[in-house]
């Protein structure tokens, strides 16, 4: 369900530009959320792909991210990027959407991903923390495994070309005695900000290189 940002007391203002490929495909590169506090630092979150959030309406995952970072007083501004910038509210339909984009728009599809990755590179430099939170690969994306692997490798190359010291992920408080044991999934992906997990149950940890993501 789309939730108006205007109803969220944690949010001061939101900037987001939505682009369109034809009549049925939409994408966004960046969602900027200024929190209702006096902090000035920027935290960037990298998710799998946009669901519903725009400049006026949020979604459950974005609401959870806002609640978490506002309560922890980690940042004055949240910037949300994605592995894939294309809107798909059902993650299991993402693979089909990527195939459609690539087949129909060809060079435009690759240019969009290129610009998306350059924006990730920029935010590695300007953000106090970059929190990877794209979760595991959606089950239906296995049929388009090549698209997923190519883009994930491209983002991996961006991380390797910059200082990785500010890269973080989140895990449950229940693992605080051994926090890194649940920092990544079994397949070494950073965990998603599940909308059904209360923000107070999460904690943000820097990702040591020895626990590096599996690409």
TrEMBL record:
Name this polypeptide is given: DUF1643 domain-containing protein
Source organism of the structure: Bacillus amyloliquefaciens (strain Y2) (Bacillus amyloliquefaciens subsp. plantarum (strain B9601-Y2))
Q: Which Pfam families match?
A: DUF1643
Q: Which domain of life is it from?
A: Bacteria
């Amino acid at each position: 369900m789309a939730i108006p940002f205007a109803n969220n007391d944690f949010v001061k203002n939101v900037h987001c530009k939505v682009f369109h490929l034809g009549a049925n495909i939409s994408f966004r590169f960046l969602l900027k959320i200024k929190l209702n506090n006096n902090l000035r630092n920027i935290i960037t979150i990298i998710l799998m792909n946009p669901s519903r959030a725009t400049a006026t309406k949020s979604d459950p995952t974005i609401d959870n991210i806002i609640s978490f970072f506002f309560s922890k007083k980690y940042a004055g501004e949240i910037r949300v990027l994605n592995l894939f910038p294309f809107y798909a509210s059902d993650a299991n339909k993402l693979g089909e959407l990527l195939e459609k984009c690539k087949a129909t728009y060809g060079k435009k599809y690759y240019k969009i991903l290129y610009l998306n990755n350059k924006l990730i590179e920029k935010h590695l430099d300007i953000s106090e923390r970059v929190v990877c939170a794209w979760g595991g690969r959606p089950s239906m994306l296995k049929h388009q495994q090549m698209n997923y692997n190519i883009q994930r490798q491209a983002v991996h190359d961006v991380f390797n070309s910059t200082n990785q010291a500010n890269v973080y992920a989140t895990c449950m408080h229940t693992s605080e005695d051994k926090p890194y044991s649940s920092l990544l999934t079994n397949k070494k992906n950073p965990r998603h900000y599940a909308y059904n997990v209360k923000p107070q149950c999460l904690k943000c940890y820097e990702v040591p290189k020895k626990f590096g993501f599996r690409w």
